[in-house]
Specification:
CATH superfamily: ACP-like
Structural class: mainly alpha
Low-confidence stretches: none
Shape: globular
CATH architecture: Orthogonal Bundle
Largest sheet: none
Distance between the termini: 18 Å
Order of helices and strands: HHH
CATH topology: Non-ribosomal Peptide Synthetase Peptidyl Carrier Protein, Chain A
Strand content: under 5%
Number of helices: 3
CATH class: Mainly Alpha
Helix content: 40-55%
Radius of gyration: 11 Å
Length: 78
């Protein structure tokens, strides 16, 4: 795994502590029961704190999976 992926796994684990780490890369809004709007906003705050990536709330509806978050952050991390 890349350093970014490792960091994202840690961020997701902080927001979804009951999700096993090996399942995090496959996480999707429709497969993680706890992933609601509050969890999404919390995840954005954690990503901002850990990576310094500010995510526009208008982009939130598109960030519905670990992979989507990964790709979004990858495009914005220097």
């Amino acid at each position: 795994m890349s350093e970014l992926t490792d960091t994202l796994v840690r961020c997701f684990a902080a927001v979804f502590p009951d999700l096993p780490p090996e399942e995090i890369p496959a996480a999707r809004v429709d497969t993680v029961e706890e992933w609601d709007s509050l969890a999404s906003v919390t995840l954005l705050a954690v990503l901002d704190e850990e990576l310094g990536v500010e995510i526009d709330l208008a982009d939130l509806p598109h960030l519905r999976s670990f992979q989507a978050v990964h790709d979004y952050v990858l495009a914005r991390v220097p």
